[in-house]
Amino acid sequence: MNPSSEIDEEAAFSLFETAAAVMAFIWxxxxxxxxxxxxxxxxxxxxxxxxxxxxxxxxxxxxxxxxIVAKAAALAPPKRQRLRQNSPR
Length: 89
What we know:
Layout: H1 9-13, H2 19-41, H3 47-59, H4 63-75, H5 79-86
Helix pairs in contact: 2-3, 2-4, 3-4
């Protein structure tokens, strides 16, 4: 591969300021199945984080994407529970 054509990963990801921005990109690029797959890969996220992303998606007009993320949020454990699960004993 030509080094000048390689994507600078840091620059590429700096385009996304929030998790919802990444989710919106996945939605636009890969559709519903891509977003659902992303959510399965991100199963360590808590309810509040996902709900915030869902709300942001809805605010920018991605209603269906927001609904999918909101459903994932409803199934995710709350932050408090996630913190307890990950704390050393």
